Amino acid sequence: MRIALISDLHGNEVALQAVFADLGRVGVDQLICLGDVATLGPRPNAVLAMLRERGCPCILGNHDEFLLDPALIRAYTEAPIVVESVDWCRAQLSPAELDFVATFQRGLRLDLGGGDALLLFHGSPLSHMQDLLATTPPAELDRLLGPHTETVMACGHTHIQMLRQHRGMLLVNPGSVGMPFREYV
């Protein structure tokens, strides 16, 4: 089974169209979005429509929850440009689009067969606002992963691609479709 993981789209329709075109060329069995779909970018409605049309399961990212709970963004940051952008994106969305965002799951576990499983989340299994990085010390990674021991775990949030082995598990971050970072600070 070929599973395509995308994350941190941030309302970037042009980038998502390019990714979908590439996926069409290589072929995949399943597409899953790891969160942060519509905020901060210019085309939140279009990005939500593209995901909905494809029946793409979506994980709830911190920015997705900011759309559903307006007070949460102000607890996360006081940066006016971020708060205003999230507020603008929320104002662009219809009740039906917000209802679609409300269907996003905090996590998803897929059985891969043969005793293997894939665990999907946004930041960490504990919180969509925690960071898993290639540089996270092993003891801290143990704490952030909690009791989970799935064969593969995939997250987004940091906008940085990662492929890391930890205690026999594979940790994956596809990076960001809509707003890639060169480094995480």
Kindly describe this structure.
With 185 residues, the protein is an alpha/beta fold. It is 36% helix and 18% strand. It has seven helices and seven strands. It has helices at 13-26, 44-53, 62-68, 70-76, 80-92, 95-101, 138-145; strands spanning 3-6, 30-33, 108-113, 116-120, 152-154, 161-166, 169-174. The chain has a five-stranded mixed beta sheet with strand order 3-4-5-7-6, with no helix packed on it. A two-stranded parallel sheet has the order 1-2. The longest helix has 14 residues, at 13-26. The radius of gyration is 16 Å and the shape is globular. The chain starts with a strand and ends in an 11-residue tail after the last strand. The mean pLDDT is 96.
Brief overview, please?
Helices cover 36% and strands 18% of the residues.
Question: Any key phrases for this structure?
Answer:
36% helix, globular, 7 helices, 7 strands, five-stranded mixed β-sheet, single chain, 185 residues, alpha/beta
| Radius of gyration from CA coordinates | 16 Å
Span of the ends, CA to CA: 35 Å
Question: What is the ordering of alpha helices and beta strands?
Answer: EHEHHHHHEEHEEE
Q: Within the largest sheet, what's the order of strands?
A: 3-4-5-7-6
Helix content: 25-40%
Number of helical stretches of at least 4 residues: 7
* DSSP, total strands: 7
Low-pLDDT windows of residues: none
Q: How much is the average pLDDT? A: 96
